[in-house]
Amino acid sequence: MKENNKIAYCTQYSMCVAGGFIAAYAVLNHADFLASAQTANLINLVLCITGKDFPQMCLRLIAAVIYMAGLSVPVIVAKYTHINMKLLCIFIEMSMIVILFFITKRVNTIIALYPVFFMTSIQWNSFPGAGGFVSSSIFSTNNLRQFTTSYVEYICSKDREHLRKTKFFGGVLLSYHAGVIFSYFIYKQFAMKGVIFCLLPLLTGMLFLEMENGGFAGVKKELLAARRIIAAGK
């Protein structure tokens, strides 16, 4: 694997850790609600319309619009500016984390998750994959499908390209659920305020992103030199 691909993988894996962390934050702190996806929210939106629960319908409709707005941001930025959307995404996510830090249990669950809807939808479109593989960094279902089918393909054909794909999606799944585990232990110690620790994988993702884009040249050189020293000592 080329060095640039390895760094791109590390960037994606870091964002998967952040995705798993914030998904678990929503589930642990807000009535098992998975705010990274819209399926549950849209189902409940339709149920609210059917049951004529208009206050809840409005809250969930706003949540859907916020999610759609987040999906739109990377498209608009790419079309009309030269801004690095991945870097902008991380800065936006950091600002959302700060907002979440000040939200308390007294806030309505759906309203409290508005920042999560926005940040995860932006992340989904800003970090669509790495190394030619399309993967989500904010939820797991399709990654599990890709991991499973590529491994079965490898068993059947012995094609090493399928093995490479299996390893990538295995890394995605491991990273995402490492974020879930991290979020759980942070939740046990700090409850809702522990969301601030999501800044750690985001900062790590920023570091790898800068290395991927040619920044932090000195850091990259030192890491490569250390790797050569370790390899020589084996």
Overview of the structural elements:
The protein is an all-alpha fold and 234 residues long. It has helices at residues 3-29, 39-50, 54-80, 85-101, 109-112, 114-126, 141-157, 160-190, 199-212, 217-233; strands at residues 129-130, 133-134. The protein has a two-stranded antiparallel ribbon. Helix 1 packs antiparallel against helix 9 (199-212). The two termini are 20 Å apart.
Assembly annotation: single chain
Mean pLDDT: 90
Regions with pLDDT < 50 over 5+ consecutive residues?
none
Number of strands: 2
Strand content: under 5%
Helix/strand structural class:
mainly alpha
Question: What does this entry show, briefly?
Answer:
By secondary structure, the chain is mainly alpha-helical. It is built from 10 helices and 2 strands; from the N terminus they run ααααααββαααα. Helices cover 76% and strands 2% of the residues.
